[in-house]
Amino acid sequence: GNKAWPSRAMAFHRSAAVLRPIDVDATLDRIGFGRFHWFTIPAIGLFVVAQSLQTNLLAFLPPCAGHAFGISPEDATLLASASFAASCASTPFFGLLADTHGRRGAT
Length: 107
Hints:
Helix content is 64%, strand content 11%. By secondary structure, the protein is mainly alpha-helical. A two-stranded antiparallel sheet has the order 1-2. 1% of the residues are buried.
């Protein structure tokens, strides 16, 4: 039948093909909030802001760069495309870096 959702956030841990519930709030309490988090959370916020600005400014870059530097519209668009391509190409590298160096066991 229909079961009500638990009042606290729950996740499941897969161990030897058996699912057992994990209390997310208790796990986060056990991990704690330390100096690493005080540094990392604002840094991630700054990176998100920078990425958002970059993405939004790409719409204005080709006409402004073309006019300021006297380059063709095609070359100015190539600048925006190169910036976006570099972002796409670096994402897997930073994802791998985060997975290998940024994770630690919590359970």
